[in-house]
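Archive entry. Fields below.
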Amino acid sequence: MTDLTSLTLAEARDGLAHKTFTSVELTDAHLAAMEGARALNAYVLETPDQARAMARDADAKIAKGEGGPLGGIPLGIKDLFATRDVRTTACSKILGDFKPPYESTVTTQLWRDGAVMLGKLNNDEFAMGSSNETSCFGPVVNPWRREGSDAKLVPGGSSGGSASAVAAGLCLGATGTDTGGSIRQPAAFTGIVGIKPTYGRCSRWGIVAFASSLDQAGPFARTVRDTAILLRSMAGHDPKDTTSVDCAVPDYEAAIGKSVKGLRIGIPKEYRLDGMSSEIDRLWSQGAEWLKAAGAELVEVSLPHTKYALPAYYIVAPAEASSNLARYDGVRYGARVDGNNIVEMYENTRAAGFGAEVKRRVMIGTYVLSAGYYDAYYLRAQKVRTLIKKDFEDCFAQGVHAILTPATPSAAFGIGEKTGADPIEMYLNDIFTVTVNMAGLPGIAVPAGKDAQGLPLGLQLIGRPFDEETLFSLGEVIEQAAGHFTPTRWWG
Amino acid sequence: MSVDAATVRRIAHLARIAVTDAEVPHLQGELNAILAFVEQLSEVNVEGVEPMTSVTPMEMKKRADVVNDGEIADAVVANAPAREDHFFVVPKVVE
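PREDICTED_STRUCTURE:
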């Protein structure tokens, strides 16, 4: 029998439907792969008993013809999603052994559609990071290595465990969240596909909050089609999230293979950064050529406020984080460190429970929201955000259907390489992705080539609000031209 | 704008994060690096621009003002680090 962990999600779905194999077999193959890949540190909790029970249940339903859209498909879940009675930590010490008595809406919908949970995936603490090095469970290792080197590379972040697990065949797909690039950047670093849908497309209920006006859930998988299948199950209106949008979820898979002839693709000149590597530049031109060859029309566009997106993000996101993370006080859940009075108890608990990056961001957020500074920082940043969004609106109003950019300024870097004294160096990883969160738009990262050291590189497509379908159609064109990217197995 | 050591201690207290004297210079350097980075926003002309308050243009949804959940006190306190019956236990707040 073929290796069940190397199938695409769509192939596995067909194999299950044709009874070529069972969900229990498929699930066991993945559990074995996970056991053999612990060196990657992708999973922070494996749930084999629950996985097998869910797989048996799925097999019974498939036998009755009631499998559902994801019947029997094993998935990994980012540890930011609350899973009922299964430890959920956001990879922070402050949540301790928190076992939610409830299930997030997104995962509830995945289980409704028949999916199987393999375990919880590593991420940067509270999703704050671009390399998965801030997790209290330690860094995740990228399954990719530079040619001729065994140096360990980061998988990107914050959804680094999700990206690493999908790229290494430790699940058929995974959930992620994206606040400034946390799905698209790790997808690019590991040679897989990741989409951040439009803000409001997926419910945020039951997802540990980082920056509420920017956070959005989305899927990772090894093909564009597979992410389309997953997003259909994840998306949808939820009365429990007032920002979730009440509009029908299309059959995203139907967009795969749809002609892109006549679509106008914007190439934003502001994304051509000074000192950008020639490899990234070439990849970008190559992607544009592929879309043109498929019948799309390329137009140069201008998004004049692009350079202000990252600084505005580093006011808005920490401000919202400082407010959201106020709930971790050692009273209702998680770890507690005692003190002589209640304030000391709060301060000791938060000093011991939060890691360095989280403390840094909570403090910046506290500062920019504090009396006397609110107008100069937070209010100004929210005004700049209006301008960033307007740039995109103007561009779409000129008939542009989607925008093509690089996904990241470089390929994956080494563990420990960018954790020096200056936090800005790490923040610059998100320079191409963060604009999309600021404007609430959908963005997909698709692998498109390799750098000189043999590491995967990705392109990003940015769409109109709620037009994920066009991104899937265009993404598939790039995928067809670029092919698939599979790391050489060295672990386990 | 940049912060001095006293401001770092004040922010840490507002954020309810205990910091040691040894940590202050390090935090001060990092916070100032971030504040210097965001300083470039001051060159943007925001005259007459509305601050963004809603990412998607939609009306705030309101649910009916009725009790729709409850009677789950066991679940609510299940994860508490210190509890008695259905109460969270904290150090004495009122003398």
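CURATOR_NOTE: The mean pLDDT of chain A is 97.
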